């Protein structure tokens, strides 16, 4: 892949689609910084910061943290970054966040490069999340508090209501690249790479 100075990749897709896994590898292999808002928020929760205490009940319920908090977090992360070479995983998740991100990028003079959309049928999603929770537990790790069936279903519902409109938003701007998110990690990764060519 040619490496333009700036690169902004936004992963879209429902909870359980595999955004984090794919974004992680893409970041590693293409010298990009992965900005995963879920990881950032969970880190605050585990360190018990003021922000962590504020957002914990929201994460546990599978709801969205207020836009202002996310927008401030992202503004901080992008400040002083030069060149801007990032992959967003889990942000933006609402129209307000997408508009705020566009304004931030405009201030920085950096365009969106591509928005890969990982498509996975609904019936596979909750199962993947519940499996991930069980695997973590059986490996002796603490599973994510929101990787239970009930909360996973709530997260899907929130995705349909609040995040799916972003598909039209990025499609209208010519950035959307849909891909099949079902297959092995390598298969899906190769499809991701194709969307970036
Ligand atoms: P998943 O995509 O599997 O739901 P994430 O790790 O991306 O997992 O997000 C976990 C939780 O963190 C979300 O359910 C939500 O509570 C919070 N969160 C993450 N990103 C955002 C965001 N951009 N806006 C609001 N809340 C967010």
Description:
The protein is built from nine helices and five strands. It is α/β, with parallel strands linked by helices and 197 residues long. It has one domain (7-196): Rossmann fold. The chain has a three-stranded parallel sheet with strand order 1-3-2. Strands 4-5 form a two-stranded parallel ribbon. α1 (19-29) packs across α9 (185-196), α2 (37-47) crosses α3 (50-61) and α4 packs parallel to α5. The longest helix has 17 residues, at 122-138. Adenosine-5'-diphosphate binds at residues 15-16, 37-38, 41, 58-59, 62-65, 70, 90-91, 93, 97, 146, 155. Adenosine-5'-diphosphate (ADP) binds at residues 15-16, 37-38, 41, 58-59, 62-65, 70, 90-91, 93, 97, 146, 155.
Element order: H for helix, E for strand: EHEHHHEHEHHHEH
**What low-confidence regions span 5 or more consecutive residues with pLDDT below 50?**
none
Count of spatially separate domains: 1
Query: Helical amount among residues, as a percent range?
Result: 55-70%
How many helical elements?
A: 9
The largest sheet is:
3 strands, parallel
Pfam family, one: ADK
Family: Belongs to the adenylate kinase family.
Binding site for AMP: 37, 42, 63-65, 90-93, 97, 144, 155
Binding site for ATP: 16-21, 132, 183
């Amino acid at each position: 892949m040619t490496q333009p100075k700036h690169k902004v990749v936004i992963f879209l897709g429902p909870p359980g689609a595999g955004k984090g896994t794919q974004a992680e590898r893409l970041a590693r292999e293409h010298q990009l910084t992965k900005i995963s808002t879920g990881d950032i928020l969970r880190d605050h929760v585990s360190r018990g910061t003021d922000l962590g205490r504020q957002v914990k009940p929201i994460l546990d319920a599978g709801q969205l943290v207020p836009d202002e908090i996310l927008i401030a977090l992202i503004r901080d992360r992008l400040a002083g970054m030069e060149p801007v070479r990032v992959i967003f995983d889990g942000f933006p998740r609402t129209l307000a966040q997408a508009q705020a991100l566009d304004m931030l990028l405009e201030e920085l003079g950096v365009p969106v490069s591509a928005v890969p959309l990982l498509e996975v049928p609904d019936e596979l999603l909750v199962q993947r999340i519940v499996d991930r929770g069980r695997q973590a537990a059986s490996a002796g790790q603490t599973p994510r508090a929101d990787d239970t069936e009930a909360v996973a279903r709530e997260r899907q519902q929130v995705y349909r209501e609040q995040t799916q409109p972003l598909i039209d938003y990025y499609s209208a701007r010519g950035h959307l690249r849909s891909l099949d998110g079902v297959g092995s990690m390598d298969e899906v990764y190769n499809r991701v790479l194709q969307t970036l060519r």
